[in-house]
Amino acid sequence: MDAQHRAQRSGPIWWITSIASWLLLLVLSALIIATIVVPYLAGAQRYTVLTGSMSPTYKPGSLIVVKEADANDLAIGTPITFQLESGKPTVVTHRIIAISENTRGERVFTTQGDANSIPDEKPVIPEQIRGKVWYSFPYLGYVHSWLTGEQRKIILSIVVTALAAYAVYMFVSGTREGRRDRRNRAANVDDVQMSDDIQLSETATASHNESAGHVTTL
Fold it and tell me: Which is one Gene Ontology cellular component term of this protein (predicted)?
């Protein structure tokens, strides 16, 4: 039974399954960290791209993580997320194509979508800017939009718990398997030693009997 179990645990199917499981665990963990933990710690915001104005850079359904930025540090070519109207919740993400100053001496930004043929009609002032795009993930925006705040908390709790439980299971299973292998190796060594002792005993007995059969009488 142990030999069969070891064969199953060391065969190609077991290795492929184990590697695939660990890779899936790492990918899911990395996604959770990148899309939830890092933005939370950095004070960044997550947005879903709804239109194709920034294609192919950010296609519809992409999740973009936007980090707060000082208007004085923004440069031409930077994609920014800004309010269409100052103080209003509706935002858009376009790229800066020109920087100038208004009559009040403020920096203003001319923006344009990568897929658009003309610049945006109105320049963007610093008060409208929510931040610059830090990084993005394709398609994850659909999930972000589909889940409400309460649903997102529930799903996240379930996923994190499941990942933690699976990681513990894999660790305990691997540790237990390692202990079993060490016990089996130790048992095999004992069996070999016992076999050698038996052979030595049998050899000694045979030699003794042979000597007894050749006693010289006077």
Answer: membrane
